[in-house]
Write a structure and sequence with these properties.
Layout: E1 11-15, E2 21-27, E3 30-33, H1 47-52, H2 54-69, E4 74-76, E5 81-83, E6 91-94, H3 98-108, E7 125-127, E8 133-135, E9 140-141, E10 144-148, E11 151-154, E12 158-159, E13 162-168, H4 180-183, E14 184-191, E15 194-195, H5 196-202, E16 216-218, E17 223-224, E18 230-231, E19 250-251, E20 254-259, E21 262-265, H6 276-283, E22 295-297, H7 312-315, E23 323-324, E24 330-331, E25 339-347, E26 353-364
Parallel strand pairs: 6-22, 8-16, 9-26
Antiparallel strand pairs: 1-2, 1-5, 2-3, 3-4, 6-7, 10-11, 12-15, 13-14, 13-22, 14-16, 14-17, 18-19, 20-21, 20-25, 23-24, 25-26
Bound molecules: calcium ion.
């Protein structure tokens, strides 16, 4: 059974030979053009649909389902070009995997407590750079920067972070966790490329800056929340503050990370400590607004074992324990020409396995 059947129908934006961008849904290894349906589906990005809100999302999904069921024309994916599916407004990245936070603390700050004092009190995050959110398949230039005192050059510790991105449709402020599904349209897979040397030298006291802003890749297909099945959220202790309750749904998304042709990890999203609903509630709790096209990411998804981590920092213990790839070569961090693919599946709302697409990127050399 296809993971991209009628139960899934993720939305993307594609173009064919004439270059015109159209909204489509993925069906198997094809795309079905939705632009003949007109209205919100005749746009060149998903933003008008995102802005229209849940009743319009439900109607569009019903229309798309009927269109596909009626035998609409299909175009093989290899004959189209996939684009960034929506214009990204603001981009925020959280840090909500307890295991990832503990692993990073243990590797980089072994003398300090594993979690910062506020970690279990609020979903920690930072505001990133939407202008360099790129679609899967776009090559990633190795960033240069200050790697240490007086040293400027190409990053020698280029890494990935396997994450899930949530796409905001309806703007809001002071959003309650119970209103999550009225504001969030769907999910993408996301790679928060990270230059660990640039990051390490710059991050105190204000957090990530140029070590992460050079590129963030997302999958081309936005899987609507309607296709996903809510799962029990992870237990939280101590109980979160009232504005972060109830926690909202968890999602049992199963990710994989391939380094060139080697599967190196399978991070489980189900164990994430803070939910996407709590992240959105926290993000807007001070009166800050979100707008159509906002993207917020979960934070690196890591499970409890080495084959479940979402970064190479964790996989190779900061490069000290290189991994062997299928071609016999070893890696601590990314080399030029390396390709990373993050993919995912889940048991969807219809009770069958659905695909979450994939996000891939290849490293090209630093600008000279
Ligand atoms: Ca991140």
């Amino acid at each position: 059974m296809s993971r991209y059947g009628i139960e899934n129908l993720p939305y993307g934006v594609f173009s064919g030979d004439d270059g015109t961008r159209r909204i489509g849904v993925r069906l198997g290894s094809d795309v079905v053009d939705l632009s003949p349906l007109g209205g919100l589906l005749a746009a060149e990005t998903l933003n008008p649909l995102l802005a229209a809100g849940r009743p319009a999302w439900t109607a569009a999904r019903a229309e798309a389902t009927a269109h596909v069921t009626a035998g609409a024309a299909r175009t093989p994916l290899e004959e189209v070009r996939l684009h960034l599916p929506f214009e990204v407004a603001d981009y925020t990245d959280f840090y909500s995997s307890e295991q990832h936070a503990l692993n990073v603390g243990q590797i980089l700050r072994p003398q300090s407590p594993g979690l910062s004092p506020s970690w279990r009190r609020l979903p920690i995050g930072y505001h990133g750079r939407s202008a360099t959110v790129i679609v899967s398949g776009t090559t990633v230039e190795r960033p240069s920067g200050q790697l240490a005192d007086g040293v400027f050059g190409p990053s020698q510790r280029l890494d990935i972070e396997a994450e899930v991105g949530f796409v905001v449709g309806v703007p809001g402020r002071h959003i309650r966790t119970t209103d999550f599904a009225d504001h969030v349209f769907g999910v993408v897979l996301l790679n928060d490329w990270s230059a660990r040397d640039i990051q390490a030298f710059e991050y105190r006291p204000l957090g990530p800056f140029l070590g992460k802003s050079f590129a963030t890749s997302i999958s081309p297909w936005v899987v609507p929340l309607a296709a996903l099945a809510p799962a029990a959220p992870a237990p939280q202790d101590p109980p979160p503050h009232d504005y972060l309750m109830p926690p909202g749904p968890g999602f049992d998304l199963r990710l994989t990370v391939d380094w060139n042709d080697t599967r190196v990890s399978s991070p489980p999203f189900a164990g994430m400590y803070w939910t996407a609903a709590q992240q959105l509630a926290h993000l807007t709790s001070n009166g800050a607004s979100v707008r159509t096209g906002d993207l917020y990411a979960s934070g690196t998804v890591s499970g409890s074992s080495r084959d479940q981590v979402g970064s190479f920092l964790e996989l190779t213990r900061n490069g000290t324990e290189p991994v062997k790839l299928a071609d016999g070569t070893t890696r601590g961090f990314l080399l030029d020409g390396d390709r990373v693919t993050i993919a995912g599946t889940t048991i969807g709302a219809a009770g069958v396995e659905i695909g979450l697409g994939s996000v891939t990127g290849t490293i090209r050399p630093a600008a000279s």
